[in-house]
Amino acid sequence: MPKLKPETQALRRDHILDVAERLFAATGFHRTTMHDICREAGISSGALYVHFDSKEALIEGLCGRDRAQFTERFSALASAPDLLAALRTLGTQYFIDEPAHKRLFVAEMAVESTRNPRIAAIYRSVDAYCLESFKRLFTELTAAGRIAPGLEPASVALVFHLIGDGLFWRRAVHPDFDFEAVREALLITIERLLNPQDMPAGKSATIVRSASARISHKVRS
């Protein structure tokens, strides 16, 4: 059998992950089998095991892909001159644009992490990564004078995290939840929490570039 090109292998791997994510969301981690994934993906078991040797490995691949996407989106947030506008965009990406099965997958993995040690390690690693990214961002912005929160940056990041968790769960268990209806109220709450500070345009741009470079280096490492 001829060896597939790297780009073809990458496309196949992404296809497998897409199928697995939808199945995990629809039928749950335990009820989904490797055979189900092969059938839905239209591949042999051998082709699947080239990339993933277990359902846990699939979860690791999915969470790794989500982490990479978060890093890309977060990089845009960290470098944005208008922080609140960038947060609005981030909220739209995660709480409006993403398909329903994405939030169901997150909910399924959160529950599974309470009883499967390997899933717990994977899930909590991504969770900690996101929390630390926001903590670092708010620390940088506070030091730069771009925000003046009434709480320590670590506490602000945790509140942010809790808001995000609540929105994910609300959308997962209430399919008709309308994020648009609460988005402006959330932005007002976040603005009061962060307390953005006006700065001269030139100085602000310089600080943003410097902070963004340091944050991007950290989140990639």
From the structure above, extract its key features:
78% helix; 2 domains; mainly alpha; Arc Repressor Mutant, subunit A; disordered C terminus; Tetracycline Repressor, domain 2; 221 residues
How would the blueprint of this fold be written?
Blueprint (H helix, E strand, L loop, with lengths): L5 H22 L6 H8 L3 H7 L3 H24 L4 H15 L2 H13 L4 H27 L9 H21 L5 H16 L6 H20 L1
Walkthrough of the structure:
With 221 residues, the protein is mostly helical. The protein has two domains: 1-53, Arc Repressor Mutant, subunit A; 64-220, Tetracycline Repressor, domain 2. Helix content is 78%, strand content 0%. The chain is built from ten helices and no strands. Helix 1 (6-27) packs across helix 2 (34-41). The longest helix has 27 residues, at 117-143.
